[in-house]
Amino acid sequence: MSGGDTQVLTCAVQRRRERGFTLIEATMTIAIIGIVSAVVSLIIQRPVQGYFDTARRAELSDVADVALRRMVRDLRLALPNSVRVDATGRYVEFLQVSGGGRYRAQVDSAGGGDVLDFAGPGGDTSFDVIGAMPPAVPGDQIAIFNLGSGFTGADAYQGTSNNRATIASVNGSRVTLTAPKLFPFESPGRRFHVVQYPVTYECDVAAGVVRRYWGYAISPSQATPPSGGSNALLATHVSDCAFAYDPNEILQRYGTVSLRLALSSDQEAVTLFAEAHVPNVP
Question: For residue range 68-106, what is the model confidence (pLDDT) as tens digits?
């Protein structure tokens, strides 16, 4: 091969190496990459979306579960026959107690002991507790033989002629009241309860929240919502709710509070139900 032929061959090889991609090849490559990307996105879209949907449902379920558990726990501490639900089914109220005990109804064998007097015209200012003293601090109230709405003298919500008295001090087994109190009725079981404060749970669907109120003044009529005291947010994203109370007047020992709470967010929704059995033996 002559020198001229070698030079021509070398130039042809160099031109072939410098050729690169044509426009058609680049267009085909871009199209193939787009098709592959679309297929991959379709494959992973549903699992990813399902993961986020599951996470939202789990979060909503957790919020609703915590709220219902708190409400059930509080309702189990309600003063017997003090639960009431408004006509809309969006407010439930009750008087929360810290405990209960038995008051002394007779003197001991030696003639001693401070008996709670139900007969004296001026009422009584103190009494002894039989057995363990329940948790009680000054400012709490004693309630005896609470039968609920419609029973004059046995309704703790009444402003006058009620069955409540405020505690001034607790010393050993003796409870001293801030003022003389003539309780209208004796308890068949010689029982009393220590009332801490009223509690209301509000379900505000318009605002999408459930709120807890406590420590406000006791009122004969149910306030919706109550004023004064303290309040705290319990749940958000609330889309619906319903509270109902069955006093179970046939058995008379336990009432049932039914609670339904629905939460929704980003097209995901959960609905949870709970029931609280409240003791109604005064």
Answer: 999 999 999 999 999 999 999 999 999 999 999 999 999
What are the Cα distances from residue 62, in Å, to 21, 90, 107?
Answer: 57, 21, 54
Give 3-state DSSP helix, strand, coil % of the chain, rounded to 5: 25, 35, 40
Q: Which of 138, 146, 144 is nearest to 177 (CA)?
A: 138
- Report d(CA 136, CA 99) in Å as an integer: 8
Judge whether 263 and 64 are in contact, CB under 8 Å: yes
According to the model, what pLDDT value does residue 102 have?
A: 97
Query: Between 144 and 25, whose confidence is greater?
Result: 144
- Asked if residues 226 and 200 have their Cβ atoms less than 8 Å apart, the reply is yes
Cα atoms found within 13 Å of the Cα of residue 37, Cβ hemisphere only: 6
- The rounded distance, in Å, linking the Cα atoms of 168 and 241 is 40
Instruction: Quote the CA–CA distance of 181 and 177 in Å, as a whole number.
Output: 8
Find out whether 67 and 235 touch, Cβ atoms under 8 Å. Answer: yes
Residue 71's SS3 state is: helix
Integer CA distances (angstroms), 174 to 63, 120, 123, 262, in order: 43, 19, 16, 47
Cα separation of 100 and 282, whole Å? 10
pLDDT at residue 249 is higher than 90: no
Pairing of strands 124-130, 141-143: unpaired
List all residues 6 or more positions away from 65 whose beta carbon is below 8 Å from its beta carbon: 272
Check residue 128 and give its pLDDT. 98
Helices (H), 83-208: none
d(CA 255, CA 276): 8
The H or E element spanning position 39 is: helix 23-75
**Across 43-158, where does the E strand assignment appear?**
84-85, 91-103, 124-130, 141-143
In single-letter form, the type of residue at position 228 comes to: G
